Amino acid sequence: MSHRNAPLSETGRLRLARCVVEDGWPLRRAAERFQVAVSTAARWAGRYRELGEAGMADRSSRPHRSPNQTPTRTERRIIKVRVIRRWGPAQIGYLLGLHPSTVHRVLTRYGVARLRWLDRSTGRIIRRIETSAVGELVHVDVKKLGKIPAGGGWRMLGRAKGTRNAQADKSSGQRSKYAHPLRGHHFLHTAIDAHSRLAYSELLADERKETAAAFWARAQAWFTECGITVQKVLTDNGSCYRSHAFRDALGDIEHRRTRPYRPQTNGKVERFHRTLADEWAYARLYTSDAERCAEYPRWLHTYNHHRGHTALGGQPPASRVPNLSGQYS
Predict the structure, then answer these.
(1) Which of 47, 176, 186, 317 meets the CB 3.0–4.6 Å disulfide criterion with 145?
(2) Helix (H) or strand (E) holding 220
(3) Assigned architecture for domain 138-148+184-320
(4) Is the whole-model pTM more than 0.70?
(5) How far apart are CA 227 and CA 225, in angstroms?
(6) Which tens digit of pLDDT belongs to each residue from 26-65?
């Protein structure tokens, strides 16, 4: 959109029209003065005579008639299939014999919600949790992460080599240097502020109630050190979060739980776990579990203070926390 006072904006058109209609300028002189074609000057002068100042506004470019528009009956079939089956434009188009772009235009014209906005099981629009200040809500969850055996896992050695050596060990009764028995898991406990996405996370040995309660005590102390007063905590319905130990650790903080089988409600921490899997846990080939664990604090600092977040307009989480130390370190 052009500037309001630029030539041939609404103000410029009005000036041109008044010069012709009220001041009696010839069309050619007005066109030369405003650097437009004579036909353009005539059009705006004619609209001014007919409608006055209201005629200077832009009109819709939509045609009065659209003889090739999709019939209403077909549009209703498209909407019906979308509502009942929750299919995308391509699948609906194949079923009804229409081009996917035609289906997409119909869905857009009727304002049908995108599939990614819907809950797959119920078809209802997902209402996203939005907070207006830091500390208003903190998401807490646990992610189970397999340990890396010494020398690297199958991502480094390859599935075929690991399977071949495992079979050889089984037949000979000996353990190969490439045979990797179950090494156990880390339990990644995370607390993330809903407004800023600032995260506190630890690699712990289990997800028992005592561990979860002790983790929250350290997380709350860390948030307090960052100048964040936590008001509410959102968790799933895991046994550690339903325990008296975790309730006592929360104290006066309000505890909210997600509905059963609805991990989307705790989506911010779920998305954080996906991000750390892509950018830390499986971002490169580690030769040992200790190497990957040592890298985690550095990655977490980068996430909080330097990595741009798409939900924050490309700014890091620390940018939403006033006077947070370490933002530029």
Answers:
(1) 186
(2) helix 209-225
(3) 2-Layer Sandwich (3.30)
(4) no
(5) 5
(6) 999 999 999 999 999 999 999 999 999 999 998 888 888 8
